[in-house]
Amino acid sequence: MSTPHPITRREFLGQASCAGVKGTAILSTLLSLRLANSLAAQTASSDYKALVCLFLAGGNDSFNMLVPTTSGEYAAYASRRGNLALAQDTLLQITPSNLGGRTLGIHPSMTEVRDLFTSGRLAFVSNVGSLVRPTTLADYRANRYRPISLYSHSDQIKQWQTCMPDQRTAVGWGGRAADIIKSLNAPSMVSMLISLSGQNTFLSGERSFGYTVSASGATALSGYDPNARNNLTALRTTAADSLLEADYRSLFEKTYGGGTAAAIDAYYEFSGALSGVTLSTAVPSGNSLANNLAMIAKIASVNGKLGVKRQIFFVQLGGWDHHDELLNNQVTMLRTVSQAVGFFHTALGEVGLQNNVTLFTASDFARTLTSNGNGSDHAWGGNQFVLGGSVAGGRVAGNRDHGYYPDFQQLATYDTGQGRLIPGIAVDEYARDLLSWFGVGAGDMDYVLPAFRDRFGGRPELGLMASVSTPTNPSTPATPTPTNPGAGGSSGGGGGGSPTILGAAAIGGALLLKKIADRRARLAAARAGAVTPSP
Amino acid sequence: MIAAVKRAPRALRATLIFLGFAVAAAAAVLPDTNLNADEQASRFLAQATFGPSPDSIAELRQLGYNYQTWFDLQANKPQTKATDILAAARVAGSFSNSDRNHNRRARTQVMLTASDQLRQRVAYALSQIMVVSDADSNIANASDGSSSWWDMLARNALGNFKTLMMDVTRHPMMGRYLSHYKNRKANPTTGTRPDENYAREVMQLFTIGLYQLNANGTYVTDGSGRPLETYTNENITEFARVFTGFTDESTNNTGTGTGRTDFPSATADYMSPMRMWEGQHDTGAKTLLAYPGARKVNLPASQPGLTDISDALDNLIEHPSCAPFISRLLIQRLVTSNPSDGYVGRVAAIFVNNGSGVRGDLFAVVKAILLDNEARSTAMLTDPEHGKLREPFLRVTHLLRAFKFTLNPGTTVIPYDLGALSETAMGQFPLGSPSVFNFYSPDYEPPGAISNARLVGPEFQILNAVTAVAFPNAIHTLVTNGTGNMRLDLSAQESLAANPDALLDNLDLLLTHGALSTDSRTKILNAVNGITTAMVPGGSNLNQQRARLAVYLVALSPDFAILK
User: Fold this and answer.
1) What is the pLDDT of residues A43-89, one digit of tens each?
2) Cβ neighbours for A468, distance < 8 A, ≥ 6 positions apart
3) What are the DSSP calls for A194-217, one per residue?
4) For site-directed labelling of B39, which of A102, A279, A370, B405 has its Cα 20 to 30 A away?
5) H-helix or E-strand containing A25?
């Protein structure tokens, strides 16, 4: 870890993640910091792994991304989709290795995706979505196990990112994974959770928060320099630091000040690590997603400088809510996706990380199979893909009882109407395969995916990853309990984020704590009535 | 203390930090609560307008700080229209086809300079509830359409909610954005059915929300404490049938013979309310939402299309959830992120009945919001859960209105270009939301202290490590050089700067409304007093540097960022 300036007070605090933690807590934090350092030293650099969540916001009509082409199945598809059906002879034909000879067609815009599938680097996941439990049509009609506000964008997006579709929570499974695994990383102001698309639920853990960069990286605060002496910049720097770091009573002032201070500091470490990094792989022009993925490839390539063994990235491409002009928009937007992920895989090859980085897609939901005239409406289960050198490619993962990819001649048993399909597999199952590869051990899975074991634990792995390494036990001192947020303590590591906004304990003042407790109780009664006990 | 820590040997730091925190925890920073009448007026104007200015504070002073009178004066001011600015520029030959930038600059001019500030400020709040976005090319490429949408919101901002919702539903930009423009009735031959987009969002976002609410905005729950949903997907399907038949023309003026059912071809109209083409309106009977006291649950067959629309909106607006749902959202936009149940309840009661038996009187609702004790009491300043993160765009308008600004001479085409204060730096731009879900969710819980207290802070959703740095940098550019066509005129502040205390008093009045904490004031004064003549760059002077540094630091401070 190299920083272009002397260590500042805030950086030290960030490294120890101990802002507001007092007395013995500071000691235990420093101890766990040393523990993390020693673990980092023991782990070979080839052990680096990263997950990249590519979120297609708005609800990709993914039964036009992956289409059945076996004769009876295509006819059923064409009949159901009406004027939204893609012509069979335009589709990019594939024969997945696990469908017993059934064929599928990839959207004609996605040649890179087809090539990656054929070369065994990409697998599809079919009819996956948010499920409270394995759900039948009878369950649905009896209003059993329905995710909260099914078919609504905001709720389905959140549920994809939390895997808690019957609860209102803002803690995502990427963030939870970081809570567990960040002690593998060296201490850093730069979180192991990096978003190219701003704040999101996926990267919000109980004690790990995302760090946002843009496609061009991070920016320094103007007119600010910790090394400045006896000039305007020195005066500005000292005042800015002290204004942002003061112990404000207002929770809002505290959150703004702490978050801003953390962002100012993280720049130095981030830009130091990224300095001089370039890719020779050509970025497809006019492709904002590819620009973001290029930055991800660069960040992954300096994992050694950043001192990280694990990172989780989030990048979003919006505009998929195609109630209107579905066909035309998918031609360009799926091309954007295909070219971007094709570029990404090549770029990872350039930096030697194809086997270390796995990209997976997610989206609010798929869309009604029937047409509303010129588009389709909100539905439920849909198709996704997973890309990387460690992926068991050339396959379509899914519900075995449904033949992995749904047979359009037999949809009646899981169509809730208008081609809104009950997912054959849950996002939890999708996440389980990815997280197992990432290194979340079976014992920690209950924390990262709290609903998985009870609800889907009996189901087989999807087999998305070719080689699931033995999970590296990060020796977490204790698995944090998801129901007890903000207790104050924190393991070291680059979970990072906003170290100055760790918890209520930092505010001080018994009166305030009582006020917050009272408010919590009231809100718990009024609002969190929705929150059912953890399964 | 801070400086000492920075320069101390590494081994010493942990101890110093520990001591530093022990001291800090014992003396948490609190806002000043001793506000004079001008400062209270400034705080009021920060909530009710695009920011106080010396003139607008003086106006309230001349009114004897009678806010009621101010409301009446505001309501009677003629509406300033963005479309008028575009039309004038077109007449002046500035352009023949307006683009997105022209529209944005015209609206920025309105927000910064219009005298009907209350109306425009409420329109901005509404634009974040009933969202149309020029991020959608259908909107961006619709000539003056987006500004026509803005003017429609402003026209209704102090009017009646039902009229607003009719105009929202019929506006061609909303028709484009949520795709009920040319939404066809079901066609059994082709198997198509009505588009559900508008039907869903008009319920979820514009009127009643997902969950049944009590009159004070708390959830209605079932026996096991779960909130009850307000509607089912079957309801959405029924409402989708209501919102069919809208297009540009209501008469078959192009003529393709009798029996024609599909929409007539007509020139796209981006400004006028969409017309009903009965041939594509679903004329069957429809079942809407049933709730205690509900009217118009069953719409009879063969009603005129616009009657169906009007009845369906009544069915939603009279739903018990509508008043608390809209009241909470407006309070969040104008005053505070976490209003008490009592505050929501008081405002919602006015929404239901303005005192004269009228539902949805938005002028009465806005007055109730801004005059409520929870908005006005200075005791709220020290409530750690009160207030909101000032939106970056509003931080910009507050700065520009607090000080005088000049426009770069020589720019003729609607010169209100904010330059570095860009959508990227702010994380938002009016009418530029990434989706119909606005720039942030009203229920966003920023991780950390706010989330741990189970509170929300919507605006924090666009505060991230990119905007947290890019935005202050843009402010820095504005203060030091100006940006785009905007030049800040700090001559008044420079003339005070010989006396730094007077300078801070002025900034406290204009930007932090008298509530600047003693702690922050001291830090800023220390910086200002630390400037020596040797530090002043050529071409500048001591007072100018003092004013600029003070303005920048107040703008960066949590004291200003949080509107309390």
Assistant:
1) 445 799 999 999 999 999 999 999 999 999 999 999 999 999 999 99
2) A433, A436, A437
3) EESSS--STT--SS---EE-BTTB
4) B405
5) helix A24-42
pLDDT grade for A482, boundaries at 50, 70 and 90: very low
DSSP code of residue A311: E
**Contacts A213 to B, Cβ<8 Å:** 465-466
Chain A contacts in chain B segment 300-329 (CB below 8 A): none
Return the pLDDT at B259: 53
Long-range contacts of B530-534 (CB under 8 A, 24+ apart): B530/A235, B531/A232, B531/A235
Question: Cβ atoms within 10 A of the Cβ of A30, count?
Answer: 15
pTM: 0.87
Q: What is the spatial distance between Cα B478 and Cα B471, in angstroms, rounded to a whole number?
A: 11
Question: Residue B24: what pLDDT?
Answer: 41
CA within 13 Å, CB half, B398 = 29
Q: Is A196 on the interface with B (CB under 8 A)?
A: no
What is the rounded distance in angstroms from the CA atom of residue B36 to the CA atom of residue B42?
A: 10
Query: Do A259 and B446 count as a contact with CB atoms less than 8 A apart?
Result: yes
Q: Output the CA angle B228-B230-B233, nearest 5 degrees.
A: 110
Give me the residues of A, 500-529, that contact B with CB < 8 A. Answer: 501-504, 506-509, 512, 515-516, 519-520, 523-524, 526-529
Distance CA B306, CA B244 (A): 10
pLDDT given at position A487: 30
Is there a contact between B131 and B137 (Cβ–Cβ < 8 Å)? Answer: no
Q: What does the pLDDT average to over A168-192?
A: 91
- Pairing type for strands A193-195 and A396-397 reads unpaired
Q: pLDDT class for A30, splitting at 50, 70, 90?
A: very low
From A432, A369, A366, select the one nearest A397 (Cα to Cα).
A432
Nearest CA in chain A to B468: A260
Determine contact, residues B285/B196, Cβ cutoff 8 Å. Answer: no
B372 secondary structure, DSSP code:
S
CB contact at 8 A, B242 and B309: yes
Interface probe for B, chosen from A83, A251, A520 (most Cβ of B below 10 Å), is A251
* Partner A, chain B 409-468, Cβ-Cβ below 8 Å: 424, 427, 434-437, 441, 444-455, 457, 460-468
Helix, strand, or coil here: A362?
A: strand
Contact call for A372 and B523, based on CB within 8 A: no
pLDDT (tens digit, 9 = 90+) per residue, B114-135?
999 999 999 999 999 999 999 9
